[in-house]
Amino acid sequence: MTALRIVVIGGGFGGMASAARLAKLGHDVTLLERSATLGGALQPISADGFTWDAGPTTTLLPAVIRDLFRKSGRPLEPELEPLDMIREHRFEDRSVLRLPSASRAAQIAAFDELGGLGGSWSAYVDAHSDTWDALRRGYLEQAWDPALSPPELTDLLGSREMLHKRLRRVFKDERLRLVASHPFVIDGHDLRNVPVWMGVTSYLEQTFGAWTVPGGLAAIGSALAERLATRGVTVERDTPVLDIVVRDGRAVGVRTADGDLDADAVVCAIDPRRLPALAGAVHRTMPAIPPVVAHVGLEGEVPDLPHEVVLHGDPMLVVRTGGR
C-alpha cells in the first residue's frame, strides 16, 4: 500500500481516532486543531479545585472505543466501567423512574413500578432492534455507499418521519416521551428535526448499557493524544482551518492562515458549515443548540445520587419538595 499524505481537520474524538488509525496503517498524517488543546468535547473543565466532564459522561458502545485502541496500538489503558443505573428521572408529579442499564427485564420492571408502563416501553425499544441491525451492518461497520446500500437501510435513512411524531403516537403517558427524548433534548436538538431512527439510542442503552471511566471520560481524550504521539502523527495546535483546497473535484490540501498544506486526502472532523468548500452540501441541515450548562462543585458530604439525575418540569419545584 502506498503511503498517503493525509490531513485531519479537528482534534476532537473523531479527528484523533481517524488520525491514529490512519497513521497505524502507515500514512503520513497531520492533524490540525484550532484550539490549544486536543479532546474537543472530551476536554474537562477545572476551577477552584474541581473538575467536570464538559461533554459526554458515558458511552453506549464501549466495544468501539476498545477496538479503536487495539487497532491503533496497545489496548485501552483507561478502564471502562459499566453503570448499574443510567439515570434517574424525577417528574413534575413527583413520580420517579430509575432507568437500569443493560437489562430488558430490569427496565420493564422499573416502568411497571411507574404505573404498569413496562409493556409500552418494551414494545418501543424492541421495535428498534431491526433499526440497529440495519445501521450496524450497512452504515457503521463499513463505508456507506448510497449506490450499494441495501433497501432497508436506504428506506431508513431516507425516511422523513421525525421522532416527536413517533413518540406522540406510541406513548400516551408523557413521562415515557420525556424518557425517550431526553438524550436528544439534553444535546440541544429539536425533536421535530430528529429522525425517528435515532430512537435506537434507547435500544443501545438497554442492550449494551452505559459505560464510563472513573474520574471522567476526559481520560479517553488524554489517552488518544498520547496514542497520536506514539503513532508519529504531526499535531498542529492553535491552527484554525479556513477551507479545503479543491481541484478538479477532489481535495488536494487544506488552507490555513499560515498558507496551504498539500494533501492526498483530507478528513473533516469538524462542523462542515465552517468550511466554504463543504458548507453548500449541508446548508439544509439544522445545527444543535446545546443548553446552558452550570457546573457545581460540592464540598463536604456528597448525597448518594445516581450517575445522572434528570429533573422534568419546574426544577425549583422539584428541589423544594425534595424530588420524591
Order of helices and strands: EHEEEHEEEHHHHHHHEHEEEEEHEH
Q: Give the overall form.
A: globular
Percentage of helical residues? Answer: 25-40%
Strand order of the largest sheet: 9-2-1-13
What's the mean pLDDT score?
A: 92
Say how many strands there are. 14
CA gyration radius, whole angstroms: 22 Å
* Straight-line N-to-C gap: 62 Å
DSSP strand content: 15-25%
How would you sum up the major sheet? 4 strands, parallel
Class by alpha and beta content: alpha/beta
In short:
The chain has 324 residues and is an alpha/beta fold. It contains twelve helices and 14 strands.
Give an overview of the whole structure:
This protein starts with a strand and ends with a helix. Mean pLDDT is 92; it is low at 318-324. With 324 residues, it is α/β, with parallel strands linked by helices. The chain has helices spanning 13-24, 62-70, 104-113, 118-126, 129-140, 151-158, 163-170, 174-185, 200-207, 218-230, 276-279, 315-320, and strands at residues 5-9, 28-32, 44-47, 50-53, 81-82, 85-90, 96-100, 211-212, 234-236, 241-247, 250-256, 259-262, 265-268, 309-311. Helix 1 (13-24) packs parallel to helix 10 (218-230) and helix 7 runs antiparallel to helix 8 (174-185). Helix content is 34%, strand content 19%. It has twelve helices and 14 strands. The strands form five sheets. The chain has a four-stranded parallel beta sheet, with helices on one face. It has a three-stranded mixed beta sheet with strand order 7-6-14.
